[in-house]
Design a protein that fits this description.
The complex is a heterodimer of chains A (545) and B (817).
Chain A: E1 21-25, H1 35-39, E2 45-55, E3 66-76, H2 89-93, E4 99-103, E5 122-125, E6 138-139, E7 161-164, H3 169-178, E8 185-188, E9 191-193, H4 203-220, E10 226-227, H5 235-238, E11 246-250, H6 257-263, E12 273-277, E13 289-290, H7 297-303, E14 311-312, H8 323-337, E15 344-349, H9 354-363, E16 370-373, E17 379-383, H10 384-389, H11 394-408, E18 416-419, H12 428-438, E19 442-445, H13 447-454, H14 481-484, H15 489-511, E20 528-530, H16 533-539, E21 542-543
Parallel strand pairs in A: 9-19, 10-11, 11-12, 12-15, 15-16, 16-18, 18-19, 20-21
Antiparallel strand pairs in A: 1-4, 2-3, 5-17, 6-20, 7-8, 13-14
Helix pairs in contact in A: 4-15, 9-11, 12-15, 13-15
Chain B: E1 2-5, E2 10-13, E3 40-47, H1 58-71, E4 72-78, E5 96-101, E6 116-120, E7 133-139, E8 153-158, E9 180-183, E10 196-202, E11 224-230, E12 242-245, H2 249-265, E13 281-286, H3 289-295, H4 302-314, E14 342-346, E15 351-352, H5 354-358, H6 365-373, H7 377-385, H8 391-398, H9 402-405, H10 418-423, E16 440-444, H11 448-459, E17 463-467, H12 476-479, H13 488-499, E18 504-507, H14 514-523, E19 526-529, E20 535-536, E21 548-549, H15 550-558, E22 568-572, H16 576-587, E23 592-596, H17 605-613, E24 617-619, E25 624-627, E26 631-634, E27 639-641, E28 644-647, E29 651-652, E30 664-667, E31 670-673, E32 686-688, H18 698-717, E33 727-728, H19 749-755, H20 767-771, E34 777-781, E35 788-792, H21 802-806, E36 812-816
Parallel strand pairs in B: 3-4, 4-5, 5-6, 6-7, 7-8, 8-9, 9-10, 10-11, 15-33, 16-17, 16-19, 17-18, 19-32, 21-28, 22-23, 22-28, 23-24
Antiparallel strand pairs in B: 1-2, 11-13, 12-13, 14-36, 20-29, 25-26, 26-27, 30-31, 34-35
Helix pairs in contact in B: 6-7, 6-19, 11-18, 15-16, 16-17
The chains are: A alpha/beta (545), B alpha/beta (817).
């Protein structure tokens, strides 16, 4: 029989001081409205009564007794399954600033117990590492009288970049004259909304982003494009005129491609590009992962799979065995699918082997670009070990590849796109422009868009990061309609527009003092410097202090 | 020649008039004589080339000009590319009239002062009128870039076209007139950028660029002033800074009043008619910030975009094929109704309290205590008596009270004292039985199992006939358990109550045989075997014949003629029965009792305490080798001296009377009747209850008897028998903090009733109703057994879980929704 009085102790027993986030509750401010316990996505907090004993210590009285006072408060659970994730939704709904999570200043023991039933820790978010080298790269070749510094506020700027295989002028003219095929090239805004799948994101988020992209293009004249991620694309979107703002991603899971192929005859326009995903920065060597919580009826229908099953995509495409083969097979096939009118490019995880891939692409006439995704990329679901320990920071990876192209004289031909934590601490334009001046033709931003356009709560302090189990309290990465209806697609779209307008302005503020307005300063590495000697050496830029 | 300016009420007399000095103020000053010497009016010429034909530097040239200006107010400057010519001629010494001949450098008239007039008899270079604060400059030819940059006052008149970035950064101090730039032809790109108040007049005659007289992107950042223009443009003017209007009457009059003077100054008076056609002129005028705020609320609002552009492109919801009818409209963070992610459920009576769960008879003690709280003492007694006929004897004395080992009240102070409560029932009358249903059941054995089976059947209106071997009821309770543990007075009164029940018929001194059994099977509808275990187990070691069985010993001890015991007694088997034996041995005169066992003694509770209180000791592990006259010899060779050796290693059933159709199981070297969950044997109408089915405590026997009786009653009534299947309540769901520990526990029945936590059954305390933040919970009467229910209104409930967290009895639970 259960002995009620004893408190069982197990290896997994925790106190609230062992958790990563500690709930601070002020009873004097609490209005007992119930909203915090209602909203908490992890059911980490509950109302509790505590009986306090107040012994009557009157020495002259003979009778001994205690009085009792019951007080009511919100406390947090200490079971690992219900641990506070620090999202702060309780603070959002509290009418009187009575409750909120605080990061534990000491080490949290939860990390050591997050493998219940042998299941290794999985989460969403980025690598839990708060710094980014890109923040330290600053622009220091200012046109101070040496050439006319331009007026960011009043002059006209050409901010766009090219996605596609750019032929050399002689070759272009030759082919134009002879009527040969000219590789398709798109003029796009150099900040691309990176691949986040329809499935990883909720319908309201994904469609809200696309609506914002359409608005940027059609109302603001900013040619932003967005990549779909691995989950396919809703057929009505494929058949809409907005397809031209979309980069369709094909990955090892091939989700949604039956619908895409089926829709080709009905497409009103071509997609912006095709992105072949071989890897992603957040979890290199691992495929996409959509856990069963998020394979709702809608997602299952779009992806062509049964409801409620885990969808771990294989790390590699199952019929590809070498770089050459991958490049030839897939790029050519996908190029052919749209009559060679659409740029096709591979996306790889940052890696010390990226140059090998690049060199193969240079030789391939159909390869339109190379996208390298660095270690700080975000994801909706990955094993923590993959996220924190696997990958390559983007700056030196991109730089090496670019310098390799320069050595071959091909830097103007095959654009490089970079990603992986761009805008991690909020400095999205600085980070992006630093990468552009290191040699990127543009950057992809994913997690940054979630934060800027939808109010994502996640951070590299491991705040929230429950994207993988579909309980996102903001409705960004959940397939539960009761959660994702909290996110208004119109508001997301407005924030997308705000974000890109601000990036445009900041780009001008960076380019104008450098004396550039008529073309994006791709590879203008003489304009940047860093206050770290070793990094400067590695990136082949100036060391400034 | 005089030129009057109407605005600003100032007089500005130009060159050929008598000298007037004026102050740097806005007030028209009356004529004032200066203290300066009257300057000569002869014209002085300054050359820009020296005697060697070399160009004099701009610095030197300026010195010479300044010196000349001291002597004469009329100067002719034969420049040769010198820069900054014509400025810095202070108004006090003026007015000055400069004629420029020869190629002039940049910044002609730079920092020009009021009172200076400059006529350049040819084209000029960049930046004419740079930072001019009042000079009037006429260029009889084209000028190049940067004309009137930072112009603040004065005028520049061009007989030709100008280059890029003209009239930029101009200022206007409202104390002075607006600065003006007049251009006969066209202007270059980026005209009037950041113009803050100057007036530009572009006539479009002999324009350098007739297709675009205002250049590319004029007026970017222009915040004040206006531009008159005539001629074609490319429409690239900054629409966020200026708007295009037609001159109103005042503006037209202003232009027409000044046009003749301009044309005169540049020597083109005949153009007046051409330039006087009002319809050909337009004005670009700066938009004020307030106007801008009204005109430009920014790009198209998103809601408009959604309605006009986005939704239309899809012809409906873009997900309508994948998820028809999906409503994705916005909701808030705290929702009610179907939008909640979980909902509360009032799970009353669905989980069993520990007392009810662990009691083998499943006496619902919490219900009994509630009846007592409600003041219905008789009903409370009746409730218990409907479950067992022996509350005083068993619950009150000999039962280890399994019900209370798990009592939730322990968390607060102490378990409910059910023994005390059991004793209180000894005098209560038996419940009224149901009307007779004309069924008969034979019960073989009148121990607790058989008794309760009979009791339950009798209450249900079934005739129960007990066939007991002994001359009294009670089985081991009567025969074996020491009176010290089971007071005779209580026992007797409960037996009396039992016997007074209708439908119970007891036959004593009946020895059961196979043939009798068969008879019973025929005569009665059902037969219940409740013979218990009255066959002691023995061990075959040498000297076994010296050993007395515990069963025999205890029976003897309780009889009128108890057997004698030696001073030293050894008991083989240290269970609770062994302890009873030890106790009785001490009562009968033993002085040293040792209990030995092959394993750790299983004795516990009152029996063990009683034995130890008398000085009994335990020794283990001890394996008996043999028993001699001296005592017990262990396999290790020790002798434990004893005159009396008693063996107490359990009893087994004596089943000789059973027909073969009733199967038995062999367990532990003995045969036990095989039964199913209801106690039914392999013979459909034969049941086995109590120790004969499975050895246990008295309470197990009572429970077993009731269970089989319930089954039979269900059959008789044509109903489905439902066994006790409730799950034990999770103590964590109770909120015990609502209870303060009592000082007095176990004093009287009413006090105990108030201490009960009512686990799993609503105690109607209204705390949930009080605690619910949105008033969603209410109580209503319903025609069920309970009589009421608490409900949560889904339209108000926000699923905060306070009800679950507050409920003292663990009734409210939160379920996923």
């Amino acid at each position: 029989m259960v002995t009620i009085r004893s408190i069982p102790s197990t290896p997994s027993s925790l106190t609230h001081l062992d958790l990563q986030w500690i709930i601070k509750h002020r009873e004097d401010r609490c209005t007992l409205c119930g909203r915090c316990t209602s909203i908490c996505p992890k059911e980490a907090i509950y109302l509790t009564y505590r009986r306090q004993r107040m012994p009557k210590l009157d020495i002259l009285k003979k009778k001994r007794s205690s009085e009792y006072r019951t007080f009511t408060g919100i406390r947090q659970r200490t079971e690992p399954a219900n641990r506070c994730i620090g999202c702060g939704m309780c603070t959002t709904v509290c009418p009187n600033e009575a409750i909120g999570p605080e990061p534990n200043p000491l080490d949290s023991r939860v990390r050591l117990l997050q493998n219940d039933k042998g299941d290794a820790w999985k989460r969403g978010g980025r690598r839990n590492f708060r710094h980014t080298l890109l923040d330290r790269i600053i622009f220091n070749r200012i046109s101070m009288l040496t050439d006319p510094a331009l007026d960011a506020g009043r002059h006209e700027f050409q901010l766009n970049t090219l996605l596609g295989r750019v032929l050399s002028p002689e070759e272009y003219l030759r082919r134009k004259a002879s009527g040969e095929w000219i590789p398709p090239v798109r003029e796009i805004f150099p900040f691309v909304i990176g691949s986040m799948s329809f499935g990883a994101l909720s319908p309201n988020m994904w469609l809200g982003l696309l609506q914002g992209v359409a608005y940027c293009n059609e109302v603001l004249g900013i040619p932003v494009v967005m990549a779909t991620g691995e989950g396919g694309c809703p057929p009505w979107v494929l058949k809409s005129p907005y397809l031209k703002y979309i980069i369709l991603q094909i990955a090892s899971g091939y989700f949604g491609w039956d619908e895409i192929i089926r829709a080709i005859p009905d497409m009103q326009c071509d997609p912006a590009a095709i992105e072949i995903k071989y890897g992603q920065g957040a979890k290199p060597g691992d495929g996409g992962l959509l856990m069963w919580f998020k394979v709702s009826k809608l997602i299952a229908r779009l992806r062509g799979v049964p409801e409620g099953v885990d969808l771990p995509s294989p790390p590699v495409h199952q019929t590809l065995y070498s770089i050459e083969e991958s490049v030839m097979k897939m790029i050519q096939s996908l190029s052919m699918a749209w009559g060679f009118r659409v740029p096709v490019y591979p996306k790889i995880s940052g890696s010390t082997s990226a140059k090998s891939v690049l060199n193969n692409l240079v030789r391939n006439p159909y390869a339109s670009a190379l996208m390298i995704d660095g270690v700080d990329g975000g994801t909706g679901a990955a094993y923590n070990v993959s996220m924190d320990a696997m990958g390559h920071p983007i700056a030196s990876n991109l730089r090496e590849c670019y310098l390799d192209l320069v050595a071959q004289g091909k830097q103007n031909e095959i654009p490089l796109f970079a990603a992986g934590g761009v805008g991690k601490n909020g400095n999205v334009t600085q980070n992006g422009m630093a990468l552009i001046m290191l040699g990127a033709s543009g950057v992809h931003i994913g997690k940054y868009m979630m934060q800027s356009a939808a109010g994502c709560l996640g951070s590299e302090q491991n705040r929230c990061n429950v994207c993988n189990i579909g309980i996102c309290p903001k409705g960004i990465t959940s397939q539960n309609i009761k959660l994702y209806r909290r996110l208004d697609p119109d508001q997301v779209a407005e924030r997308v527009a705000d974000t890109f307008m601000a990036i445009s302005t900041e780009m001008k503020k960076i380019m104008a003092p450098l004396g550039r307005s008529q073309s994006l300063p791709i590879g203008m590495s003489d304009a940047i410097g860093i206050d770290d000697d070793a990094a400067a050496e590695r990136l082949q830029i100036k060391y400034i202090c | 020649m005089m030129m009057l300016q109407q605005k600003g009420c100032r007089l500005n007399i130009s060159v050929n008039c008598p000298l007037y000095a004026y102050e740097w103020s806005t007030i028209v000053s009356p004529r004032k004589k200066t203290t300066q010497k009257k300057k000569a009016t002869t014209v002085l010429t300054v050359k820009g080339l020296d005697n060697n034909g070399q160009r004099i530097s701009s610095q030197k040239f300026e010195d010479i000009v300044q010196a000349a200006a001291q002597k004469s107010k009329k100067l002719v400057l034969e420049t040769y590319g010198q820069h900054n010519v014509g400025g810095r001629l202070m108004p006090q010494g003026g007015p000055y009239h400069l004629t420029i001949r020869g190629p002039v450098g940049q910044r002609l008239g730079c920092m020009g002062q009021p009172g200076t007039t400059i006529i350049c008899e040819g084209p000029a270079s960049d930046d004419v009128g740079y930072l001019n604060i009042g000079a009037d400059i006429v260029v009889l030819g084209d000028a190049t870039n940067g004309v009137c940059n930072a112009l603040a006052q004065g005028s520049v008149m061009i007989n030709g076209s100008i280059g890029a970035r003209g009239l930029t950064m101009t200022k206007w101090n409202p104390d002075y007139d607006r600065p003006e730039l007049w251009v006969l032809g066209s202007v270059g790109d980026t005209f009037a950028e950041f113009n803050c108040g100057g007036i530009g007049i572009v006539c479009g005659v002999e324009a350098k660029n007739p297709d675009n007289v205002l250049g590319y992107r004029p007026c970017v950042g222009m915040v004040g002033g206006w531009i008159y223009y005539r001629g074609k443009t490319d429409g690239t003017y900054s629409t966020t800074n200026v708007k295009e209007i037609e001159p109103d009457d005042e503006q037209w009059q202003w232009l027409m009043e000044r046009m003749p003077d301009y044309l005169e100054k540049i020597g083109r008076p005949k153009l007046l008619k051409t330039l006087s056609k009002r319809k050909e002129w337009k004005i670009l005028t700066a938009i004020s910030p307030q106007e801008r705020a009204l005109i430009f609320s920014g790009p198209m609002p998103m809601s408009e975009f959604r309605y006009k552009v986005w939704d239309r492109a899809f012809g409906g919801d873009p997900l309508r094929d994948l998820a028809p009818g999906l409503d994705r409209s916005p909701i808030g963070l705290i929702e009610t109704g179907d939008l909640r992610r979980r909902q509360p459920y009032w799970a009353n009576h669905e989980a069993a309290a520990p007392c009810t769960f662990y009691c083998p008879v499943h006496i619902p003690t919490i219900d009994r205590l509630r009846l007592i709280r409600d003041g219905r003492l008789e009903d409370a007694y009746e409730l218990v008596l409907k479950h067992t006929p022996l509350p005083g004897s068993v619950c009150g004395h000999i039962c280890p009270n399994l019900c209370m080992e798990g009592c939730s009240r322990q968390v607060v102070d102490k378990s409910i004292d059910v023994a005390m409560m059991g004793r209180a029932i000894k005098d209560a009358p038996p419940p009224k039985p149901a009307p007779n249903v004309n069924k008969k059941v034979a019960i073989i054995g009148g121990g607790p199992a058989g008794m309760n089976a009979a009791w339950q059947l009798a209450l249900a209106g079934v005739e129960a006939h007990i066939f007991e071997r002994d001359n009294k009821l009670g089985g081991k309770l009567a025969q074996v358990i020491p009176w010290d543990r089971l007071p005779k007075a209580i026992w007797d009164s409960e037996i009396d109550r039992f016997m007074s029940m209708e439908n119970i018929h007891v036959n004593f001194n009946v020895e059961m045989t196979k043939s009798k059994f068969k008879e019973l099977q025929k005569k009665f509808d059902y037969v219940i075997v409740a013979v218990g275990t009255h066959e002691p187990r023995r061990l075959p070691f040498p000297g076994k014949e010296r050993v007395i069985t515990a069963l025999d010993f205890l029976k003897s001890a309780k009889s009128d003629n108890p057997m004698k015991v030696g001073k030293q007694v050894v008991i083989i088997g240290a269970g609770n029965v062994g302890c009873d034996v030890a106790f009785e041995a001490y009562q009968l005169g033993a002085e040293q009792v040792t209990l030995v066992d092959i394993q750790k003694p299983l004795a516990f509770g009152k029996e063990k305490e009683a034995a130890e209180a008398h000085g009994a000791t335990f020794r283990w592990p001890v394996i008996t080798k043999e028993v001699t006259r001296e005592g017990l010899v262990t396999t290790e060779g020790d002798l434990i001296p004893a005159q009396t050796v008693i063996i107490s290693i359990g009893d087994i059933p004596a089943l000789k009377f059973l027909p073969d159709s009733v199967e038995c199981l062999s367990v532990g070297g003995a045969a036990w009747i095989k039964t199913d969950a209801a106690g039914q044997t392999t013979e459909p109408n034969v049941f086995a209850v109590g120790d004969v089915e499975r050895p246990g405590l008295a309470t197990n026997a009572l429970g077993s008897g009731k269970k089989s009786a319930d089954y039979i009653i269900a059959q008789v009534q044509g109903k489905q028998w439902v066994s006790f299947d409730k799950k034990l309540i999770d103590i964590k769901t109770l909120t015990t903090e609502h209870y303060a520990p009592d000082i007095e526990c176990g004093v009287h029945v009413e006090g105990e009733a108030y201490r009960c936590l009512s686990c799993g059954k609503c105690r109607d305390c209204h705390l949930c109703e009080t605690m619910c933040p949105t008033n969603a919970i209410s109580r209503r009467e319903v025609p069920t057994e309970v009589g009421y229910e608490y409900i949560s209104d889904p339209e108000k409930c926000i699923a905060c879980g306070f009800c679950r967290d507050t409920c003292p009895c663990g009734i409210w639970v939160m379920q996923p929704f």
